Automatic annotation (TrEMBL):
The lineage of its organism: Bacteria, Pseudomonadati, Pseudomonadota, Gammaproteobacteria, Enterobacterales. GO terms for cellular component: plasma membrane. It catalyses: ATP + protein L-histidine = ADP + protein N-phospho-L-histidine. Signal peptide: none annotated. Keywords: Kinase, Phosphoprotein, Transferase, Two-component regulatory system. This is histidine kinase. It comes from the Bacteria. GO terms for biological process: cellular response to phosphate starvation. One of its GO terms (molecular function) is phosphorelay sensor kinase activity. InterPro entries: BphY/WalK/GraS-like, HATPase_C_sf. Its EC number is 2.7.13.3. The gene is phoR_2.
Length: 105
């Protein structure tokens, strides 16, 4: 029951975020986003959602940030991790990486 409540809460938050994005004329994408901090939160949420059915590795370069919209970025990352947890078999290892590409891009 608790798992279903968390799942529904997550879905409602995603729908609200999507609604805000669609309603906004043009979002400013110049906010410095602390992605490493965001990923620590997403990692805790993923562990809770998984209920120890998956293992996780979050490879995070703490020196990297990005300019954008924090709410949108968090929604996108959370959605990817949510899908990984819910659409892979138990026992799957899920890796999330935040690093500079080798070619500098």
């Amino acid at each position: 029951m608790r798992e279903q409540t968390y799942r529904m809460e997550g879905l409602v938050k995603q729908l609200l975020t999507l609604s805000k994005i669609e309603a906004a004329p043009a979002l400013l994408l110049n906010e410095k986003v602390d992605v490493p901090m965001m990923l620590r939160v997403v990692e805790r949420e993923a562990q809770t959602l998984s209920q120890q059915k998956h293992t996780f590795t979050f490879e995070v370069d703490d020196s990297l940030s990005v300019l954008g919209n924090e709410e949108q970025l968090r929604s996108a990352i959370s959605n990817l991790v949510y899908n990984a947890v819910n659409h892979t078999p138990a026992g799957t290892h899920i890796t999330v990486s935040w690093r500079r590409a080798a070619h500098g891009g």
